[in-house]
Fold Uronate dehydrogenase.
Amino acid sequence: MPRILMTGASGGIGTSLRKLLPPIYPDLLLSDLKAPADLGRGEKFKAADLANMAEVEAICEGVDGIIHFGGYSVEGPWDAILQSNIIGCYNLFEAAHKKGVKRIVFASSNHAVGFYPRYHRIGTDVTPRPDSRYGVSKAFGEAVGALYADKHGMKVTCIRIGNFGDKPLDHRRLSIWLKPEDLVQLCRIGLEHPDIHFEIFYGASNNERSWWDNHRAIDLGYRPTGRAEDFREHAFAEQAKLKPDPVGDFYQGGTFCGMEFDGDKKRIIDLK
Ligand code: 15L
């Protein structure tokens, strides 16, 4: 029975996956800065600060595979991103390598490529176009993953997560929604599939309006069950409550692109 470590266990995605993973991986070790408030009796938890190498090494001990959801999950000040997503992500890969961990599934994000226009259908082989410091940290994490796969033979899967949740929250999320059970499928492919070396998947369900070519995941057996269109009315009703955002509404990364934007808005008109 493989021992799987999940970092970020107290965060949004971690909280949901804590319920879905144990039937598949009964030997699940949870980690985060602080234990989840509702930690169950049967759950195993070890605290670690990702920026502290010794603590990260301690959680990697005796582990077969890692699902790395830990770190900063939105745009933030540079120092916070630096500590958790740059230093923390490097520490995680390096500690895992030292401790002989065979596989890592890394939670990347659509924000690593958020500055592609929505009309542009992209694969997983495009040049990163991060829309934020957070997006830069995710592109960095993918690069670190590639290094540990190519140089050290670790089997690494990066999932560029769209928007994880029970339903798509607005118009943009109809294209990028990810149902929790579909994320579990992607994690399982990363942790179990014999053909993984280094892969990037899009973390998206079966969304008619998708901007992403996710054929690598499909080729490796991904069969998403979530259909964003089933929630279309809800998403449009929520969208109607939002103010127009000329930058965010044009690019895939949405509000992350519009935040702090003082670039050339004319480019958007030219590209349209
Ligand atoms: C992300 O990467 C964030 O973690 C999440 O909070 C959402 O903002 C999501 O992207 C999104 O793009 O909707």
Observations:
- The chain has ten helices and nine strands.
- The pocket of D-galactaro-1,5-lactone is lined by residues 73-74, 109-111, 161, 163 (CB under 6 Å).
- The mean pLDDT is 97.
